[in-house]
Amino acid sequence: MAAPAAATRNDVTEALERIKTIVGPKGWTDDADAMAPHLADWRGLYGGSARMVVKPATTEEVAGVVAVCAEAGIPIVPQGGNTSLCGGSTPDEGGEEIILSLARMNKVRAVDPDNYTMTVEAGCILESLQQTASDADRYFPLSLAAEGSAMIGGNLSTNAGGTNVLKYGNARELVLGLEVVLPDGRIWNGLRGLRKDNTGYDLKQLFLGAEGTLGIITAAVLKIFPKPTDIRSAFCAVPDVAAAVTLLGRARAESGDAVETFELMPRLVIDLVLKHMPDCEDPLAERYEFYVLLELVSTASGESGLSERLEAILEGAFEAGLVLDAAIAQNEAQRQEFWKLRENASESQKIEGASIKHDVSVPVSRIAEFYDAAWKKVAEIDPTVRLVGFGHVGDGNLHYNLQVPEGGDGKAFLARWDEFNRAVHDTVVEMGGSISAEHGIGRLKRGELAHYKDAVSLDLMRSIKATLDPAGIFNPGKVL
C-alpha cells in the first residue's frame, strides 16, 4: 500500500492545533518522556517517532481527530496497550505519524446478563473485563499472558487467541457488534447484541484482525458465558508431542468436551522459567522431556463430578503410556502455580536473550509431524539452536521459538532471522498451516505474508484497503 501523501508544514501545524482543541489538554502530549512508552514495541524489535500521542476520551473525539488527519494527510497509528508482538502498533522512524491511543476510552457501557453480552470501550483492560463479567455472575473467556495491560480494542484488532480458544474460539468469535471510526472520520455504529442478523454483509468481520488498517475500533458488544463453577487442573508429563495430541483427543471425548485448556511445554520452557522467575516451582519431582497443562471446566450447579472425570482420564492415560507422571491441583493456589510456568514462558525467553519467534498453526492432527519436521530443517542450519516450542495444542497453535545457543552471539543469531523463518514457515505451509496464528502480521511478517499468501487473497485485501482507506492514513506499513 502506498504511503499517504505528505502534507505541507502549515497544513500539519494547523491540523495538530485543531486536534489539541478537539481532545483538550488531557488528550494529547508531545513530551518526549511521556511519549517514549508508545514508541517501541514489547519485544524491542521496533522503535519509531511520532508528532504526538493523542488520547481521545470519546468516539466523537476519535472521529474528529481522524477527520482532521484525513483532511491534512497525517497518518495515524492506532494503539491500545502496546503489547503487540509483531510491531503492529509501533510508529515508523519518519516522525510524520501521530499515535492515537484508546487508553482513555475505558468505560463499560452496559452489561446484559440475560442476553449474555457486555458493551465495552476499546481502552478497557482485558483483565478488568474478565472481572466485570465475573461480578455479573458471568464469564469472559479471552485470556492471555498480557491481560493485565492489553486493551480489548487491540485484542480485537489482532484477533487475539490465548489459552481458551479450544473451547470458546478466537477473539472474533467473541464479538457480536462493533463501533468503528472509518478513515474519513465517519462512525459506523454496529453495536448490536444479536446472535442472528442476516441483513447483508457481516461488516464487523472486516475490522476484526485488520490491525487498525481499515478502521479504529472504539467499542464492542462481547459475548459472555455462564460462570464456571468448578475447574480441575493437572500438570502432566508426556513422552512426546504425539502422545500429547492423543491425550487431548481422549480428554475431550471422555470429559464430555469439558477441556478448556491444553497447553504444551517442553522441558526447556520449565528450565528457563525456573531460572529467571524465582517464585516458580517444578510440580513434579523428576525431569521429563514434555509437559501438558490440562484443565477441565464445568458450569453445572451442585456436584460436577469433574474431579472424578479428570482422575479417570489420567488413570486411563497412564495405562496407555500417554502420561508418565502428573500432579493434580488441590486448590486454586496450586492451580496458579501451574499457570506461572506457562504464563512466564515468553518473559523468561526475553530475559534469556535473543530469540526468533514463530507464532504458527497447523491442523491439530499434524502438530507432532510439524514439530519434528521443522526442527530437522532448523538443525540443518544450526544444530546448537535451542528449540522453545510451546503453546496451544488444543487449537493447533504453537509458539515455535528459536533461542540463541547458550553463550552465543545474539546479534549474529538474529541476523539469520530470514533463514530460520524460511525453514519453519515452509514447513508450516507444506502442512496446510498459517504463518500467523494469533499475533497478527504488523511490520514483522509483512514480507512473509507477501511471500506465502496467494495472489487472489492479496489482491482482495489490497482492494478492501484501497476502498476504505484510499489515502492510506490508517496504520501505514502494517500488514500490506
From TrEMBL:
Entry protein name: FAD/FMN-containing dehydrogenase
Keywords: FAD, Flavoprotein
Molecular-function annotations in GO: catalytic activity; FAD binding
Family, as annotated: Belongs to the FAD-binding oxidoreductase/transferase type 4 family.
UniProt cross-references to Pfam families, sorted A to Z: FAD-oxidase_C, FAD_binding_4
Gene3D superfamilies for the chain: 3.30.465.10, 3.30.70.2190, 3.30.70.2740, Uridine Diphospho-n-acetylenolpyruvylglucosamine Reductase, domain 2, Vanillyl-alcohol Oxidase, Chain A, domain 4
GO BP terms in the entry: respiratory electron transport chain
